[in-house]
Every structure is written in C-alpha cells, then in structure tokens.
Design goal:
The complex is a heterodimer of chains A (83) and B (107). With 83 residues, chain A is mainly alpha-helical. Chain A is built from four helices and no strands. Chain A has one domain (3-81). In chain A, α1 runs antiparallel to α3 (27-51), α2 (15-24) runs antiparallel to α3 and α3 runs antiparallel to α4 (58-81). Chain B is mainly α and 107 residues long. Chain B has helices spanning 3-28, 32-42, 45-58, 62-106. In chain B, α1 (3-28) runs antiparallel to α3 (45-58) and α2 (32-42) runs antiparallel to α4. The chains are: A mainly alpha (83), B mainly alpha (107).
C-alpha cells in the first residue's frame, strides 16, 4: 500500500461527516454536503489513479468533476423553486 | 527517500488534511451559508495541493496535466455552484419569512 492509496482511504473517511449532514440537516444543506462529497470523491479517484499507476483512471475524475458541477447547478435550481 | 518524494508527501498530507478539516467544518457549521464557505474551501485548497503533489510525482506528463485540469475545473466551477446554492438558500429563507408574515396577517 503506497502513500496515494493511504491518502485515498483517509479522504474516504472525510465522507462520513458529509453523509451525516446530508441525512440530518435541511435539504439545501444536504446539497452543500453533496457538492463537498463530489469534490472529495474526485480527489479520491485522482489518488487511486496515482496509487495504481493507471493514468487512464484520471478520466473518471475529470468526468465526475464535470457531472457534479452540472448536478450542483440543477439541485440549486430545483430547490430554489421547489419545496 | 529523495527530496522530491518528501515534497510530494508533505503536499499530499496537507491536501488530505485540508479536505478533512473542510469536511468537519461542513458538519460543525451552524447554517447553510457557513456550510457553503467550508464546502468551497474544500474545492480550492485541497485539490490544488493534491494536484501539485501529483505534478511533483509525475512531472508534466498526462496524469499531472489531468490532475491540474481537474483542480482548475473545480477552482473555476465551484464558485458558480456556490453562488447558485446560496441564492437558492436565500430564496427559500425569504419564502419562509413571507409565508410566516402572511400567516400573521391572517391571524
């Protein structure tokens, strides 16, 4: 297990408080936690790509960054108008 | 262990530490605007440090460029999402206040 895989594991621990916020806080706070979680998972994917020495895996991180950006905007728009 | 590896590990530890602090900050914050503040810190400080660590590890090759691309996209894109989320939170809060006022007026 190299430093990159340890870093990825440590970053995954950071998802726990975000899950707690998403489950217990109001909906709009949950969206904020979701945005932060998407960033953390993007970094986890980058670290895993380095840890396994597969540069092709970084394309999943790029894809997640783009998709989470669009998802964040859509959630914000829906919650601005919805319940 | 070379100097380059030391630098890489220090950057990695700082990046992971910054991310964990931001995650705990999102949990500890009192309202949505403070949570947005911590979430946006998580999209700038941590990714920049980790992407720099990857560049130090890989030099300017495909993985390093990809990591810089991800960090740059997060840095540029997340303020847009933060603004939209803050506006939605403000609109929801205003909507609740207006609903409360209408209820008071009705008696």
């Amino acid at each position: 297990m190299n430093a990159w895989l340890i870093a990825a594991t440590a970053l995954l621990v950071g998802l726990v408080p975000l899950f707690v916020v998403a489950l217990r806080a109001p909906r709009i706070d949950g969206v904020v936690a979701l945005e932060a979680a998407a960033t953390v998972v993007t970094l986890v994917l980058l670290c895993l790509a380095e840890g396994f020495a597969r540069s092709a895996y970084t394309s999943t991180a790029i894809t997640l960054a783009v998709v989470s950006f669009i998802g964040g905007l859509v959630f914000a728009r829906v919650l601005e108008r919805g319940p | 262990m070379t100097v380059r590896e030391h630098v890489e590990h220090v950057l990695l530890v700082l990046g992971v530490g910054a991310e964990l602090v931001c995650c705990l900050g999102v949990l500890a914050a009192r309202d949505v605007f403070a949570r947005i503040h911590y979430a946006m810190a998580a999209t700038s400080v941590g990714p920049a440090l980790i992407a720099t660590a990857i560049v130090v590890h890989e030099s300017v090759k495909a993985p390093g460029i990809n990591a810089l691309l991800v960090a740059a996209f997060l840095l540029v894109g997340s303020p847009v999402v933060a603004t939209a989320t803050a506006r939605a939170a403000g609109a929801r809060r205003l909507g609740r206040v207006e609903a409360g006022l209408e209820e008071v007026e009705r008696g």
